[in-house]
Design goal:
The complex is a heterodimer of chains A (273) and B (278).
Chain A lengths: L16 H4 L2 H17 L3 H17 L3 H24 L4 H24 L2 H10 L4 H30 L9 H6 L2 H24 L18 H23 L6 H6 L19
Helix pairs in contact in A: 2-5, 2-10, 3-5, 4-5, 6-7, 7-9
Chain B lengths: L1 E9 L5 E10 L4 E6 L5 H5 L10 E6 L2 E2 L5 H5 L2 E4 L12 H11 L4 H14 L15 H13 L5 E5 L7 H16 L3 E5 L3 H7 L2 E6 L2 E7 H5 L2 H6 L6 H8 L12 H14 L7
Parallel strand pairs in B: 3-8, 3-9, 6-7, 7-8
Antiparallel strand pairs in B: 1-2, 1-4, 4-5, 9-10
The chains are: A mainly alpha (273), B alpha/beta (278).
C-alpha cells in the first residue's frame, strides 16, 4: 500500500513558462478545464479535453509527476467505471465518467504542480481575501505531502504490528483503518497546535494590513492564458449544445451488462446530464 | 539470522537510498546501525520485516526471502519499533494498545492478558494499564510503543532511534533493558545517532554513509576511528577525544566509555607510582 500518488500534487520548483505564469491565470485555466469536463458526457469530447492537457503538462515540464498523479487516480477511475457500468449506465457513458474524472484530476494536478504555495497565497491576498484565510488555505495545501508521509509511516508501523490491510471481509477491512486514522488525526491536531504556538510566537496577526515584498502582475502571456481559457470554455459550451459529436454508443450494444431487473431497453442509452 | 545480500533500494521518486549493502546479523547479536541523516539506516531496517522489498539483491530472515512472505508473517519473528510512538498509538487504554498485535496474530484472550500484564510490568507501565496512551509523557509513550512490539516475543528486535526524547535516567534503563533482552538470546538491532549511548552499551557497530556500509566492527574500533566517524558525520564519544589528546601521556587509543577510561587512567597513574590512589 503506497501513497505515492500524492507526490503528484506536490509542487516542484522547476523553471518553465507555466511556472512563471500568474497563479490567477493558471487558476482560470484549471477552472476552464474543470467546467468544460463537467459540460460533456461524451467520451470522445472528454478524451479530446484530456489530450489537450498533455501538451500543457509537457510545457510545464511536469509530465512525469502529472502522470504519476493520474496513475494514482486510476483505481478510483476504475471504480467510477464499474459503478456506472454495473448500474446499467452503458459502456460509453461509464467510460466518459472515468475520463471526466481524469480530466478533473489532471486540471488541478497541473495547477498545483506548477504553482508554489507562496504564489497561491499571494494570489489569494491580492484578491482581497483576509490573510488568516489565505494563510489557512496555503498551509493546508502545503501540509498535504506531510500528512501523506505521516500516513505512510503509520501504515508501516501498524503493519509491523501484524495489521493486514489487504485481507478479510469488507467490514473488517474498514475497521482495520481505525488504527491508521486515529494516529493520523491525533498527529494532525498535535501539529496544528504546535504550529499555532509557533506562529503566535512569531507575531502572527500583529498588524492588520500586511504588505508583501512581491506583487503579482498579469503580463501579456497571462492574459493570453486567460483568453484561451475563456475560449476553451465558450467552445465547450457551443460544441456540447449545437454540434452532434460522434460517440462510442456502438460500444454499448457490444458491452452490455444486465443487472437484476434492469430493463434491456434502458441499457446502452446515454442519459442526459 | 538476518542476511542482506547486494541490497539496492530505489524509492519511486528515483532516489537510491541503498546502494549495494551486504550484512549478516547472527542470532542473538547486538548491533547498532549508525550514520548521518539520510544514510539509509531506516530504509535498511524496513527491509527486515518486508515493509520495503529490495529493488536488487535480497534479504533473508532465518532463511526466508522477504519477497516470499507477508509483512505480518515476517513481523512474527522480526519486531520493528518505530521512532515516533505518536505514529502508531490509537487505543483507548495502554492495555488495549499493547494487546493489539497479539490479537492480530490470533493469540487466545487468556494468553493475551497474561502477556500484556507481564510486559507492562517489565517496562514499568503497570500503573498506566487503564490510562489513555495519549495522556502519557513522551518517554512513557515511547515505552508503550516498545511494549506493544516486545509483547509478542519476536526473535529479532529492531529499534529505530530508541533514545530520542528520553532523559538520561530513562536512557540508562533502556540500555539495561535492551542488554537484558539481548542476554535472553534475542537479536537486538538499534538504529541510532546517539554515540554516547552506543559507547556505553558497546554493541557491534555498523556505520553507514550515503546508502553504503562504510564500517563494521566492535564499538571500540569503529567509534574511535576518526576518519570513519567523520565519514558518517558523527562525532566521536567525548572519552575518545580525551583519550586521543592524552595519548602522548600513554593513554591507549580505542577508549570510548568512562569506565574503561577510568581503569586505564588508574593503571597509568599506578605505573607512575602516584601515591594516595583509591
Amino acid at each position: 500500500m503506497s501513497l505515492s500518488f500524492l507526490e503528484g500534487l506536490r509542487f516542484a520548483r522547476v523553471d518553465s513558462p507555466l511556472h512563471r505564469a500568474d497563479p490567477r491565470a493558471k487558476f482560470a485555466m484549471a477552472l476552464s478545464f474543470f467546467a468544460s469536463s463537467l459540460i460533456f458526457t461524451n467520451a470522445l469530447a472528454l478524451l479530446a479535453l484530456f489530450a489537450l492537457q498533455i501538451p500543457i503538462a509537457l510545457m510545464g515540464r511536469i509530465a512525469r509527476r502529472w502522470a504519476r498523479s493520474l496513475r494514482g487516480g486510476a483505481f478510483l477511475a476504475i471504480l467510477i467505471f464499474l459503478m456506472n457500468f454495473l448500474t446499467g449506465q452503458g459502456a460509453s457513458f461509464s467510460i466518459a465518467m472515468s475520463l471526466r474524472f481524469f480530466c478533473l484530476l489532471s486540471s488541478f494536478s497541473i495547477f498545483f504542480l506548477t504553482t508554489s504555495p507562496d504564489d497561491l497565497g499571494l494570489a489569494l491576498e491580492q484578491c482581497k481575501i483576509p490573510y488568516a484565510i489565505s494563510f489557512t488555505f496555503t498551509t493546508a495545501v502545503r501540509l498535504v505531502p506531510t500528512m501523506a508521509m505521516d500516513a505512510q509511516e503509520i501504515i508501516d508501523a501498524q503493519r509491523s504490528r501484524g495489521l493486514e490491510l489487504e485481507r478479510g471481509k469488507l467490514l473488517r477491512r474498514v475497521r482495520n483503518y481505525i488504527p491508521i486514522l486515529v494516529p493520523l488525526i491525533v498527529c494532525a491536531i498535535r501539529r496544528s497546535l504546535e504550529m499555532a504556538e509557533a506562529l503566535e510566537s512569531r507575531a502572527f496577526g500583529a498588524s492588520e494590513r500586511r504588505t508583501s515584498l512581491t506583487a503579482l502582475r498579469m503580463g501579456a502571456g497571462d492574459f493570453a492564458i486567460v483568453a484561451l481559457s475563456i475560449a476553451l470554455l465558450a467552445s465547450s459550451i457551443y460544441i456540447s449544445r449545437s454540434l452532434q459529436m460522434p460517440s462510442l454508443e456502438a460500444l454499448d450494444s457490444l458491452l452490455s451488462f444486465k443487472w437484476g431487473f434492469a430493463q434491456p431497453a434502458a441499457l446502452g442509452r446515454i442519459p442526459k446530464a | 539470522m538476518i542476511e542482506v545480500e547486494g541490497l539496492v533500494f530505489r524509492y519511486p521518486n528515483g532516489f537510491e537510498a541503498l546502494r549495494g549493502v551486504d550484512l549478516r546479523i547472527g542470532d542473538g547479536e547486538f548491533v547498532a546501525i549508525m550514520g548521518e541523516n539520510g544514510a539509509g539506516k531506516t530504509t535498511l531496517v524496513k527491509h527486515f520485516n518486508g515493509l520495503l522489498k529490495p529493488t536488487l539483491g535480497r534479504v533473508l530472515i532465518d532463511g526466508v526471502d522477504t519477497r516470499d512472505a507477508s509483512v505480518a508473517e515476517l513481523a512474527r519473528s522480526v519486531g520493528l519499533v518505530f521512532q515516533n510512538p505518536d505514529r502508531q498509538l490509537f487505543s483507548e487504554t495502554v492495555r488495549e494498545e499493547v494487546a493489539f498485535a497479539l490479537r492480530n496474530f490470533g493469540f487466545s484472550e487468556e494468553i493475551v492478558s497474561k502477556r500484556v500484564e507481564r510486559i507492562l510490568g517489565m517496562l514499568d507501565l503497570s500503573e498506566y494499564a487503564d490510562t489513555s496512551p495519549f495522556l502519557l509523557s513522551g518517554g512513557e509513550r515511547k515505552r508503550v510503543a516498545l511494549a506493544s512490539v516486545l509483547v509478542w516475543d519476536p526473535k529479532h528486535v529492531i529499534l529505530d532511534e530508541p533514545t530520542i526524547g528520553q532523559d538520561y535516567l530513562q536512557k540508562e534503563r533502556l540500555r539495561d533493558f535492551i542488554m537484558q533482552i539481548n542476554d535472553q538470546g534475542k537479536t537486538v538491532v538499534i538504529v541510532t545517532h546517539d554515540v554516547e549511548f552506543v559507547a556505553e552499551a558497546k554493541p557491534r557497530v555498523v556505520l553507514m554513509s550515503k546508502g553504503e556500509i562504510v564500517g563494521d566492527g566492535r564499538a571500540e574500533e569503529v567509534l574511535s576511528d576518526r576518519d570513519l566517524v567523520d565519514k558518517a558525520s558523527l562525532i566521536r564519544p567525548q572519552i575518545s577525544e580525551l583519550a586521543d589528546s592524552l595519548s602522548d601521556k600513554g593513554l591507549p587509543r580505542g577508549l570510548i566509555d568512562a569506565y574503561s577510561a577510568r581503569s586505564a587512567i588508574l593503571r597509568l597513574l599506578r605505573e607512575r607510582h602516584v601515591p594516595e590512589l583509591p
